[in-house]
Amino acid sequence: MRDDQNPIAGLGHNNPPVRDFPKPPRIRKEDIDKLGNKQKFGKRKHVGDTFKMIHAFGGLMETLGRQEPAPFFEQIYEPDAKELEDISKKRVLVEDDDKRPPRSWREDRGQKIRCGQISVSILEAEHMLYHLSVGAGKEAASLFSPEDMVRLTPSQIIDRILEASPGMIAPPRNPVLLLKLLAELQGDGAPEIKLANTSLRLSNQGDGRGDNLRVKDDLLRITPGQEFMLDIRFDAPKETQIYVFEFSTTALEDTENGDEVLALPMPYLEPSATGVYVLNCEKKPIRARSAPGTFGFAAITFRPGKDKDAPPLTSLLGEAATAQEWRREELNAVIQVLRWELVQDQPRLSLGILDYVKG
């Protein structure tokens, strides 16, 4: 089927016009009361996961002048008079084992929506769509209506953006963004990625100077020239296959051929008792290059279990597994594999991510 024959609006190159998404005013309690049963889209247990997904997109984080994400009920609801009075008088309610302090109306409503206990109104759906446009871009948000924010599952939202991105003028930091979403949405059991510092120092004096791996603003910061190893931990390392790659949140350019590069596989592994160590191609510590920006490491693990005929992980990943550089096409193909596997009842794959800033 050609893109122009696709019956679903917004898929392939047949994308809808890009819309503007003005920031909605914060919702007041009386606004909800006025709606009554009108313009409500019903109860959905997956809406909590949709909010979590939009957090991962980068939305729901830019109000109230905060750098860190605030609870979504603080961002989309206006406090009522009682809550404002409690805030002004700095009332602190101490929670004990027998009685939980009462929640404010907006905290209570937000919690019930995330748990699928009450219907979601168009007012809340409009906020969700607005914040999707903040994190994913107007072009991606234009694929959806407010109702879609409630009725579509997070996986369906991801699928629509994935399929539409080839026709977008400015894809939404895609596909790295979608890779992070898949990591956010999976359950427990994801591999844990840590940096293992080495005894080598930038100054090479042996006195600790140059040991400048540090955590700042909750995001790992690596200085160009720093040497380190990746220590990746997961269950049953002897039975589990693993594939590791480094990605860039914004595409880099290959100066030799002009290709857009989004990821570089890192296949050199040293086993440990709990996982693997990742070194460079010479089996020496990795030395961070000088290009500044925001990057990350990703680890895909595959545990075939009792299925003796299961293909190896490299076969599941397809041609990308043997490519030295991943362009948009290779990374999108890997994301499609992850998307399919991670939504199974008992997924064979798991995905771990460690973001870092270089510079």
Task: Please give a handful of descriptors for the protein shown.
six-stranded mixed sheet; disordered N terminus; 11 strands; single chain; alpha+beta; five-stranded antiparallel sheet
SSE order and pairing:
Layout: H1 29-35, H2 47-57, H3 72-76, H4 81-88, H5 105-114, H6 122-136, H7 138-141, H8 146-151, H9 154-164, H10 176-185, E1 192-197, E2 214-216, E3 219-222, E4 227-233, E5 241-253, E6 260-265, E7 269-271, E8 275-278, E9 286-287, E10 293-302, H11 313-317, H12 328-342, E11 349-358
Parallel strand pairs: 3-11
Antiparallel strand pairs: 1-4, 2-3, 4-8, 4-9, 5-6, 5-10, 7-8, 10-11
Helix pairs in contact: 2-6, 2-10, 10-12
Q: How would you explain this protein's 3D organization?
A:
It is a single chain. By secondary structure, the protein is α+β, with helices and mostly antiparallel strands. It has twelve helices and eleven strands. It has helices spanning 29-35, 47-57, 72-76, 81-88, 105-114, 122-136, 138-141, 146-151, 154-164, 176-185, 313-317, 328-342; strands spanning 192-197, 214-216, 219-222, 227-233, 241-253, 260-265, 269-271, 275-278, 286-287, 293-302, 349-358. Helix 2 packs antiparallel against helix 10 and helix 10 (176-185) runs parallel beside helix 12 (328-342). The two termini are 46 Å apart.
